[in-house]
Amino acid sequence: MISKSNFETRTLQHFLLTDATTIKLNRHNIPEPVDGIEIDPLKIEVVFVPLLAYDTMGNRVGYGKGFYDKFLAGCKPHTIKIGLSFFKPENFITDVSITDIPLDFCISPKNILTFK
Fold it and tell me: Are 85 and 33 found together in one domain?
């Protein structure tokens, strides 16, 4: 799966990634599909979530626009959310919002953390 960002609505569309998928850089230099088979978020069972930092409770700091929180809110409640990080977790992230959706797991080079 590969996502396409809509910066006006701060939403994501998700497309099946195949050999025929054409990918181009958007105006923010993010590689995105030009078109393809769109995937309903309710059919997605696992999401690898981008992040800048995360804490020991599974809270994360992203890029500040809320794209992934909106997307994850539209997924099934049992959708598995996995962060990928090169760093250890922070002890505590203080600016967590009610709309922030925490991770279930985070994978780093040294370990896999579980937050459930």
Answer: no
87 and 66 share one domain: yes
CA distance 15 to 51: 21
- The closest of 46, 20, 18, 23 to 34, measured between CA atoms, is 23
- Classify residue 11 by burial, with Cβ atoms within 10 Å: 0-12, 13-18, 19+: middle
Same domain, 47 and 88: yes
User: pLDDT tens digit string along 94-112?
Assistant: 888 888 899 999 999 999 9
Instruction: Check if the beta carbon of residue 83 is closer than 8 Å to that of residue 104.
Output: no
Instruction: Note the pTM of the prediction, 2 decimals.
Output: 0.87
* Stretch (H or E) spanning 105: strand 105-107
13 in the same domain as 54: no
Residue 57 sits in which domain range?
40-116
Concatenated DSSP letters of 47-71? EEEP-SEEBTTS-EE-SSS-HHHHH
